[in-house]
Design a protein that fits this description.
By secondary structure, the chain is mainly β. It has four helices and 16 strands.
Length: 320
Amino acid sequence: MRIVALVGIGLLLVAGGVLGQLPPVHGGKWTFQLPKFTEPPTLDGVKGAEEWANALGPFECSPSQVKRDMAEFGQASDMSSNVSTDQTGCWGGDETVPAEDPNICMTDLDKTSWTWMAWDDDALYAFHENLDNVRDPDNATGDPTHWWGRDSVSIYIDLTNANEDHASGAPYVSLNIVNFLAAPIGSNAVAVTWERTEAGARATTQDPALTGAFYYGFRDAGQEFGGEQDYAIEAAYPWEGFMMVNLPATPVVGTMMGWSWLYVDPDGDPDYGGQLQCWGNADFPLTFSDYVFSGSLAGPGSGTAVQADSWGAIKATFSR
């Protein structure tokens, strides 16, 4: 799996802060207030207005977003900012013949994802709207157990906010990765992959007896989000699953965790294909965005949903 390292995130956002008006702070982190659901959502891939009212988001992850991040926050490499990276491609498996329309590949019409989040006493929840030109959940020519070679969504979560500096060789402390395939959960024996931290290293399982702790709803969204084979994933990450490994107790208001999102987009490559990473470098918890579990409410009865086409809802939730 090819991962391009990002340099440490260098911005600290404050309540009411406006992007671009704050100086870089070395070692700074994105920090968000995560609202609490009044009722858990129905995991059907349909983002009801009341159901997800006042949830945190949308967080965009796209080639254009990475370019905006490069201009705003600094460039780490040709296709990486200091807070995100674009590893989508055009070439497929043999890298000699383009696998995609060159007018689409590595543009927002290749892959764009928008994510909303909230929590309650039972779980963390996320809703992902995914624009995609080619949805490839099976990777029939590659190893079907390789989640990074199939269209999917992964959360990288630092359960104790240990912020380990894995880039310097430090062992993992509480990193967990949960990957959900872009297909109905019951349609594939390896639709859910879970990587846990065990003895300082990542251990991967696709054993249903363990991965069954996490679940999601999938919806084929057609061209709803502007692509050709769009899809939605509505996910639950129950705390009792994470408490089997690295989570010491159920989160409460004031608990802090770090995480990053990774959206896999293989587009015909049997071994890897491509991906987008946003809000931190997926392999290095020290760079993850921080989320403070808040008592502010989301969901039915929480008030008027925040209306925003990109940054409005997120800016209002920044904190020190």
